[in-house]
Amino acid sequence: PTPNAYAYPLLIRQLLHTPFVQAPDQEIVYRGQVRMTYATLHERIARLANGLGRLGARHGSTVAVMDWDSHRYLECYFAV
User: pTM score > 0.70 for this model?
Assistant: First the structure.
């Protein structure tokens, strides 16, 4: 077998693990309009995920998101 390049499986929930841990203060700029750090993005994703859970969303639930390609859509994508 070929050696794995990553110490963890490449799952959606792991895609932002490295920047959250290694570069939390790195600034993210979306279309020159929205600026935030990875730490802020992580906090916003966690707050939204917790809110969805309080509303009853569970593993296997269907959650619809209607938005353009935006920073809010990115947050929803990872929170869901």
Answer: yes
